[in-house]
Amino acid sequence: MGEQQDPEKKEFLEKRSKGTSFEPDLIWEVLSRLPSKSIVQSRCVSKLCSSITTQPGFIRSFAARSSESPCLLILFKDKGNMFVFSLPQQQKHNLNSNNHVAVVDSYSMPCPGKYHFLSSESVHGLICVEEPSGNPQVWNPTTRRFSTLPKPARRWGDDDRVSFVGYDPVDCTYKVLSMPCRRPRQPRALTLGGGGEGGARWRVIKGLPEHAPFRRGARCVNGVLYYLAAPTLDDHRDNQFLVSFHVRSEKLSMMQVPWNLTRGLRQLLHCEGKLICVISNGGDDIIMWTLEDAEKHKWSYKHLLLPFSRRDPVARTRFSLKGSKLQKSRG
């Protein structure tokens, strides 16, 4: 415990040291070494444990430690319930023995309405989920909590809307960017935890003409949130571009993309610190465009032939890219 404390943590521990027979810094260290399931349970032990585990400094340190051993999050929805499984991303396998996948954590909880996860990714431990006409929600799978955000704008009405979460590694700040899909609008941003209880406010982000975002996901890479968009919904095939939102400065910028497709699936990925767009026409090959230099708009191109068929008609499975690895999924 000889490491230097950050001012926020030091101030919190000094205030909590009064009126307790235990050293708060010792409790902090013990809690920081517990698995996520035990941390959630510890909140019912005492107000001190609950207060420590909800501190931003504690959450940041836990997220940093968890990033050293990343997990795969598997989600099932059935009859209004959500079943969550967390699996280690890398496991050692022995071909001479019957191996079972080690589950890091698992739980079930009521599914929050008709929210979907189509456009979502885990950004430093948080996932933004959306219901087309409802309020955006941010899900923390570790604490098992959903936080409901206010609606971005009343005049948007019940428009089909998409929201993305971004993270700034410098200030350790999360921000949510939201905008309608069907009608071009300027996006709005909200800082998570900003302004205290009920104090968070959506801000109009200017700097680009109004545009319509693609629903199929965004990616946050090194403090910059990227998403594909077009001037209008009708231009999604022929006139698309890439929008970048600098989470810390809230600056919007746009760059033209090097591909020109009238069909095919485009998906943004985050791989080894770079943004990648994977394009697939449903065959046994994929095209990968990697953003090598965002300032110079420099891309590299690869055309890959898969060493296997994308679809297995017997097992009714297909392969799809979700990150830096190939994942097998039902469908």
Describe this structure in words.
Residues 24-58 form the F-box domain. It is built from five helices and 21 strands. The chain has 331 residues and is mainly β. Among the domains are: 7-65, no CATH class; 263-331. The strands form six sheets. Strands 7-8-9-10 form a four-stranded antiparallel β-sheet, with no helix packed on it. The chain starts with 6 loop residues before the first helix and ends with a strand.
**How many strand elements?**
21
Largest sheet: 4 strands, antiparallel
Helix content: 10-25%
- Percent strand equals 35-45%
Shape: globular
From N to C, what is the helix and strand string?
HHHHHEEEEEEEEEEEEEEEEEEEEE
**Uncertain stretches:** 324-331
Name the strands of the widest sheet in spatial order: 7-8-9-10
CA radius of gyration: 22 Å
Average pLDDT works out at 76
Secondary-structure content class: mainly beta
Please report the number of helical segments.
5
Distance between the termini: 50 Å
